[in-house]
Amino acid sequence: MGPIPLCILLPVTVLTTVVAVTAEENTIDNQYTWPQWKVPLVRKRRTVNLSSPSFAAHPQLELSGTCGIECQRHIPSPSLNDLEQFLSYETVYENGTRTYTSVSVHGLNEVTVWSRNTSSRSRHKREVYGTDTRFTIADKQYSTKYPFSTSVKISTGCSGVLVSPKHVLTAAHCIHDGKDYLDGVQKLRVGILKEKSRRGKGGKGKGGKERGKRRKGDKGKEEGLEMEEKGGRGRGRGKGKKIRSRRSVDSGKPSFKWTRVKKTQVPKGWFKGVSDGLAADYDYAVLELKRAPKVNHMDLGVIPSVKKLPAGRIHFSGFDDDRPDNLVYRFCSVSEESNDLLYQYCDAKPGSSGSGVYIRLKEPGKKKWKRKIIGVFSGHQWVDVNGDGMQQDYNVAVRITPLKYAQICYWVHGDSSECQVA
Questions:
Q1: Structural domain of residue 146, as residue ranges?
Q2: CA distances to 39, 76, 98, 268, 302 from 409, in Å
Q3: Global pTM?
Q4: Of 135, 170, 194, 242, which has the fewest Cβ atoms less than 10 A away?
Q5: Which of these, 154, 142, 347, lies nearest to 250 by C-alpha position?
Q6: What CATH number has the domain bearing residue 44?
């Protein structure tokens, strides 16, 4: 066979190159796109009345004895019956009455399951160390605009995030200590940062020209504050302090508009003696508000692995106790993840528990980027490492799995079939 003519060889080479580049671009694009999940159905079986709670428990600044990722490796995977028991839940109403609802789960075998554990052996304590990489969002120009405006303060001393116009997602331990509801839950309130406060006679009152209009360029400033996948390092070291000091601005003490909670729902998996070593996986609760605040909420999302994302970062904002009434934002890398838990590097203090952990990816088939809640920050926990009593302290977040997504959707909409694709 003689030599192949250049006129034939050149187009073939160009075509091969184009196909290879296109395949690589599609792979990269998929890494930045929200995956679509088939979500199981959670349905009510039966609801029974229970006696009113004592509301005698006290808030815990730190959780201890938690069976974490390493400890859970020694626990068999729960059966369908186990999962249905863990996802059954209690509802407490504003008048102090309480019910128990058992549920059934359908279509679980149709849900794609990711690997049980993706391990990394690096470990870091939760307490602020070295350079404090948190950003105080004290200027209402930013704190009352999306995405920061979705963060709320819980009257028991925690944080939360709006996941619908009238529903707040928070940590279960902010409501219940595993044995009883906290003192104060019977009059639970949620605080939303107000865009502006009433002023004296010389100022503008309600209905002024400045009501909630976003000024030109604000969106870009929010993106800069949030540090979305640009600049900074995974652990926010080095230049983080300089950025923080430049970004932290103060235009008066923030104020809140407080709203009463209509009802509270907590999964039984969080209760002592129900899920044994898996209780940490169920440290989440949903609060239904009596009135919907006039702010945007953030949708829930499901992601198989945060560590495998190109940047591998998570973000969340909450009301840390050491910065009273100020919203505090942070972003950081994930050090280890399992099906239900995340260990991460974020600097945080008590008060930030219950914050919504989110990431930002492209919507399928669109160029638009969208933030979604993928977890709940559980806080500083003393974790049982190997089930032998040896404990270490970590930052822990509870992941939103397809099954938890279905349950939360059921709580919010009353029908999880409305959310069959995450």
A1: 32-111+133-195+253-419
A2: 10, 27, 21, 17, 13
A3: 0.80
A4: 242
A5: 142
A6: 2.40.10.10
